[in-house]
Design brief:
Largest sheet: 8 strands, parallel, barrel
Number of helices: 9
CATH architecture: Alpha-Beta Barrel
Strand content: 15-25%
CATH topology: TIM Barrel
Strand order of the largest sheet: 1-2-3-4-5-6-7-8
Number of domains: 1
Structural class: alpha/beta
Distance between the termini: 19 Å
Oligomer: single chain
CATH class: Alpha Beta
Length: 208
């Protein structure tokens, strides 16, 4: 399996963010985060491109890598490290477009999705929602850590997404997750660097 950039994937959402996405991105790097996913799929194409370029510069300065959600052409244009896709069927075309070095992930909401991503040779999946989440209230039901145990049997690294905090990250890794993906907990924080630091440390301790 390809090594992932780190045990924490930070996902952007400017609608929830208390600071600019760029400010949060810099905080991610300063506090030990090594992987950021530009989501914000509702931005106009040019606005999203401009934001991606800015985040690539911050990533280079702060020592993390950037992935882009959904838009393979944008990922290729800005030289992003990876792409996050909505379905396993999109993995092969993305690999052909971005090359073997690209980190390709897929959203999963059940075991069938995880299996499909493994068959498609995705580099990771985000499995959600593991816990109830304020970012998407009513989305689910929460799958719980039992779903992570089942997913961990598949041949693809699993990131736990949905309601994950520093207090619950250890339980996710103990259940077999390779890491965690977090959006709202970081976006809504007055001090995103502190939240990222707590999450990184929790993952590191749990992974030992």
């Amino acid at each position: 399996m390809r090594p992932l950039p780190g045990p924490l994937l930070v996902i952007t959402d400017r609608h929830q963010a208390r600071h600019s996405v760029a400010t949060i991105a810099a905080a991610v790097g300063r506090s030990g985060g090594r992987w950021l996913l530009l989501r914000d799929k509702d931005l106009a194409r040019e606005e999203r491109r401009d934001l991606a370029i800015r985040l690539m510069k911050i990533a280079a300065e702060c020592g993390f890598v950037l992935s882009v959600s959904t838009d393979v052409d944008l990922a290729a244009e800005v030289g992003a490290a990876g792409i996050h896709l909505q379905a396993a069927a999109a993995v092969a075309p993305a690999r052909a477009r971005l090359g073997s070095a690209a980190i390709i992930g897929v959203s999963a909401h059940g075991l069938d999705d995880v299996v499909a991503a493994a068959v498609a040779q995705a580099d990771y999946v985000t499995l959600s929602p593991i816990f109830p989440t304020d970012s998407k209230p009513g989305y689910g039901p929460a799958l719980g850590t039992a779903a992570l145990r089942a997913a961990a049997e598949c041949d693809v690294p699993v990131l736990a997404l949905g309601g994950v905090t520093a207090d619950t990250a250890a339980a996710c890794l103990a259940a077999g997750a390779r890491g965690v993906a977090v959006m709202g907990e970081i976006m809504r924080a007055d001090d995103p660097a502190a939240i990222v630091g707590d999450l990184v440390r929790a993952c590191e301790v749990a992974g030992r």
